[in-house]
Amino acid sequence: MASRENFFPKNNIINFTKLRFSWGQNGSENIADFAYTSTLSSDLIVYFGDDQVAYYGMQPSRYPNSALKWETSEQLDIGVDMAFLSNRLSLTMDYYNKKTKDWLIEAPALLEIGNTRPYVNGGDVQNTGFEMDLGYKNRFTNGTNLSTSLNLSTNKNKVLSLNAENGQLLGGEGVHGQGDVLRAAEDSPLGYFWGYQTNGIVQNAEEKQKINNGGQRNAKVGDLIFVDANVDSTLDDQDRINLGSPYPKVIIGLNFGIDWKGIDFYMFWYSALGQQVWNANRRDDLKYANFTTEVLNRWHGEGTSYDYPRVTISDPNGNWKKPSDFYIEDADFLRLKTITLGYSLPAGVMKWIRLEKIRIYVTAENLLTFTNYTGMEMEVGGGPLNVGIDHGTYPLSRTFLGGLSISF
Description:
Elements: E1 14-28, E2 39-48, E3 53-62, E4 71-84, E5 89-101, E6 104-106, E7 119-121, E8 123-139, E9 145-162, E10 168-173, E11 180-185, E12 192-195, E13 198-201, H1 205-213, E14 224-226, E15 241-244, E16 250-260, E17 263-273, E18 276-279, E19 328-330, E20 333-344, H2 347-353, E21 357-371, E22 389-390, E23 399-407
């Protein structure tokens, strides 16, 4: 603890300083029970004979993996705790470097296998980041108590090694028929959006001819222009690139509380910045009555749109089926998660009725959200290879609560 050392200045500006360093390892087997062995399912029914008598049987439901072992996490933390201004102001900062070896994950598998995907040790992953918490609390001479804190965190992940034959793991189905749109590969982030980059919309016959000659042979006027990333005049998986990350670059939280003469007020703001969401609500395999209002801004003549393609029954160009940045949206948001207003009856009243405390309060949750994302919900979760894809996720409910708390 640096503030106890003789060399540390003694004043009311910096009251406390503590440096921290830690390193450790831990193991995890947080997967389904008996996932390492072959399991049987008893829900099989087979009908035999002229009378079609039902016989109950069993069938394999998971492939075994006898080589499966715990994943191991090794983490280094360096931090500092400080207090200022007679301990009214506090600051905590941490840097961490975490390496997870033999990462446990369900292996990608074709649906034709007919069984639950087996767990494998998928590889090694590294997470590095910074966390900070800045707090202030004070009691003023008029009896007002104030407490507030601002916290911030960042995280950057990278795949160090991957146990896969083709050097990649895929997951996260986008729009129906698109296949997997999340990818993990060595020296890349864990689970980034993988697809084609677009470069506007074919506006006229002259542009159409140029695009057709460049390898996009089925493109018509009003279709998306897909970028031939490797310039080989052919559109295939070799042209798919990193389109963004479903993980926020920065997460921010703000707590604010104040009370005065029995009245208390509290609110919590939460923000996530720098992430993208795959907006699968743009799918075209629904009835036209279920399209969003974005379709009103579709291309329907030269110059009418440069980002939303024409709407047709047939789609030979793959405007809707090809996984591309047409489905990618920035999903930064700021949300008022909780706000509470309460009132506690005075101590004199409590003494008269012989109770410890009576408090009346009202609370609202998810009251306000500020975002430019056009889908229903930005916070769409899942595993490392099934996150950030919005298939019409039901939004968080706005909730209002009222209550009475009595302490005896």
